[in-house]
Design brief:
- By secondary structure, the chain is α+β, with helices and mostly antiparallel strands.
- It folds into three domains: 141 residues, Glutaredoxin (3-Layer(aba) Sandwich), CATH 3.40.30.10; 61 residues, no CATH class; 62 residues.
- Helix content is 63%, strand content 8%.
- The chain is built from eleven helices and four strands; from the N terminus they run H-H-E-H-H-E-H-E-E-H-H-H-H-H-H.
- It has a four-stranded mixed β-sheet with strand order 2-1-3-4, sandwiched between helices.
- Helix 8 packs antiparallel against helix 9 and helix 10 runs antiparallel to helix 11.
- The radius of gyration is 21 Å and the shape is globular.
- It starts with a helix and ends with a helix.
- 21% of the residues are buried.
Length: 280
């Protein structure tokens, strides 16, 4: 007899848990995902908050569910997101009724616009809703803390962070940095900033970040950081060369490609760890 009562109770608990994680259909609520992209963009502009787009397949994608279970359902994430992000779900479920009919075509347009090739994919946008700050994907062993660290690294390219970071620089570096930030601010109303400008800005911003970090690092950390930068560039160059060879009809080398990606990931983790420690 006990089992007769336990099973419904468990079912109710799981149903309540899933329901609490269901995205809003309309409007915006801090710390909670919404399917209402247009309202989210308006909210982000009004409150100067970055946007977190979750491209997902909520009822079929195991990696998406993993991230929900291990990151997005946790209080640490909800509290962080409520203060720092506007959360939007762009869903492509097998059960189409999960997404309101009026959102389905818009979701497809967003998928094509951002060139999303697979899910999950998390795209971070600045508060103007068009300037891309970074992309993240599924992370094996992810926790709220590890994922938030990566989100924060992308948010360092937001206009709000850049304007605040300027005060940590001095002299010619600060003057050059302020010019870059002014250019970004001028183009902030553009629906699609020029790609070449974004690439140049990103390089100049990273130069300023590195300049500040190196001043605050120990000698051992500086050596580790510089070695990681070299390893990253070499791995990226190796990946690009192998991809170019394959595109030209050359013989692929999957083992070498995996090795380059492993080295790229290791170098990225080192750079991220040191950035998180030394950037304000």
């Amino acid at each position: 007899m006990k089992q007769v009562f336990i099973v419904p109770a468990l079912f109710m608990t799981l149903t309540m848990f899933v329901s609490a994680l269901d995205p809003l259909i309309e409007g915006v609520e801090r710390g909670r995902f919404t399917q209402d992209y247009d309202s989210a963009v308006q909210y982000a502009a009004e409150y100067s908050m970055p946007i977190f787009l979750d491209f997902t397949g909520s009822d079929w994608c195991p990696y998406c569910r993993y991230m929900v279970q291990n990151v997005f359902s946790r209080d640490d994430w909800s509290e962080y997101a409520a203060e720092n992000l506007v959360l939007v779900t762009i869903d492509f479920p097998r059960d189409e009724t999960i997404v309101p009919e009026e959102y389905r075509e818009r979701n497809r347009r967003l998928r094509d616009s951002f060139n999303i090739q697979g899910v999950p994919m998390y795209v971070l946008l600045d508060s103007n809703g068009s300037r891309e700050l970074g992309r993240l994907g599924y992370e094996e062993g992810a926790t709220p803390s590890s994922f938030i660290t990566k989100v924060n690294d992308s948010l360092r390219f937001s206009i709000a962070y850049l304007e605040a970071f300027s005060s940590y620089l001095t002299g010619a570096m600060q003057e050059q940095f302020d010019m870059v930030v002014a250019e970004i601010r001028e183009s902030f109303s553009e629906s699609a900033p020029a790609e070449q400008n974004e690439s140049r800005h990103r390089w100049q911003i990273n130069q300023a970040f590195d300049h500040y970090m190196i001043r605050t690092m120990s000698e051992d950390e500086r050596a580790e950081f510089q070695m990681a930068q070299v390893a990253y560039r070499e791995a990226a160059r190796g990946i690009n060369e192998l991809i170019a060879q394959a595109q030209e009809g050359g013989e692929g080398n999957s083992e070498a490609l995996r090795d380059y990606f492993t080295r790229l990931d290791e170098a990225s983790e080192t750079i991220l760890r040191l950035r998180s420690k030394h950037l304000p």
